Amino acid sequence: MGKRDDDRAGLTWLLAELGGRLAALGRAPVRLLFPLGQAQDVPTGFAALADALGRAVRVTYQDLGRDGSADALGAFSDSASAMKPVDLAREFLKAVRADLEALRAGSGRAPVLLLDDLHRFGPLAGELVRDCLGPQGVGTPQAPIPVIAAFVESDRPEYAGAVEALKKYLEFAPRSVRRIEVGAFVDDEERLAYQQFLLGQRVPLALSGRQDDFAHGLLNERLGGVPSRLTAEEAEGLLGQLKQFGLLEVADDTARLRALT
User: Fold this and answer.
1) What pLDDT sits at residue 65?
2) DSSP class of residue 80?
3) CA–CA separation, 220 vs 125, rounded Å?
4) CA gap 241, 227 in Å, rounded
5) What separation in angstroms does the CA of 244 have from each of 217, 239, 249?
6) I need a labelling partner for 144 at 20 to 30 A (CA). Which of 12, 217, 237, 255 fits?
7) For residue 113, which of 89, 88, 90, 93 has the smallest C-alpha distance?
8) Which residues contact 148 (CB under 8 A, 6 or more apart)?
9) Would you say 116 and 49 are in contact if contact means Cβ atoms under 8 Å apart?
10) Is residue 66 a contact partner of residue 107, using CB atoms and an 8 Å limit?
11) Crossing angle for the helix pair 85-107 and 46-63, nearest 10 degrees?
């Protein structure tokens, strides 16, 4: 959970990195992420959420080089408008379990569900955590399916209901649920985060050794301890400014080692 006054705390990037790590460990991550600029795609109803998750499941199959679809989620989405509201959460959960179990069988990998920006889901967030999540995530004791979810404890009034529901759930959640607060990097962590931000560019970069403190000051002014807050265009502009001042160089092996020590 990110805890900031705004809602650009880098959690989408963190979930993406976790998904990559899970895939490397032999899991099947299903990632429902909402990068900056795609907030309009955040679902606020079960049918829209089923559509979005169905697409995420198909992407996971593609990433794993497998053929597969999300038939149960598709069928739920098609029939959701005819269901009684009281039945939606139960039938949605059945569809999620069916498609993720099919993913497990088709890939030979245990699925993990990653959900981004729950604070944007409106009343749906409360229904999800109350009626769909349990000690086994969205799975069963025999076949657990963990869920890694992110939300921002934002003060924005449009998020108030969802945030309150999420906080209440966490207060009385099963013991298997872990809450991790995420915030901006500070002090030594901040300097390391900025070095990693530079190394993570398409052409890895490092501080040149000329006025590194000045360079860190510029980075801090723009990033505020959260390297992922910049869009690609904003990052390109910032890096261009640093290059113009001679503060960056292409990272050779020596520069990479210096950035990591």
Assistant:
1) 94
2) G
3) 34
4) 16
5) 16, 9, 11
6) 12
7) 93
8) 15, 18, 112, 113, 114, 115
9) no
10) yes
11) 0
Torsion sign across C-alpha atoms 129, 131, 135, 139 = negative
Which residue matches tokens 């945030």?
163
User: Which tokens belong to 145?
Assistant: 């399916």
User: Which token pair is 222?
Assistant: 């723009």
| DSSP letter (8 states) at residue 225 | T
Q: Which residue has the higher pLDDT, 238 or 97?
A: 97
Q: How far apart are CA 191 and CA 37, in angstroms?
A: 27
Cα Rg of the chain, angstroms: 21
**Rounded distance, CA 199 to CA 247, Å?**
14
Long-range own/partner contacts, residues 49-52 (CB < 8 A, 24 or more apart): 49/92, 49/121, 49/124, 49/128, 50/74, 50/76, 50/77, 50/80, 50/92, 50/95, 51/77
The residue among 166 and 174 whose pLDDT is bigger is 166
What tokens were used for 233?
């265009």
- Give the whole-angstrom CA distance, residue 205 versus residue 183: 25
% residues pLDDT > 90 (the chain): 45
**What digits encode the pLDDT tens for the residues 74-93?**
999 999 999 999 999 999 99
Distance between CA atoms of 117 and 43, rounded to whole angstroms? 10
Q: How many CB atoms lie within 10 A of CB 11?
A: 25
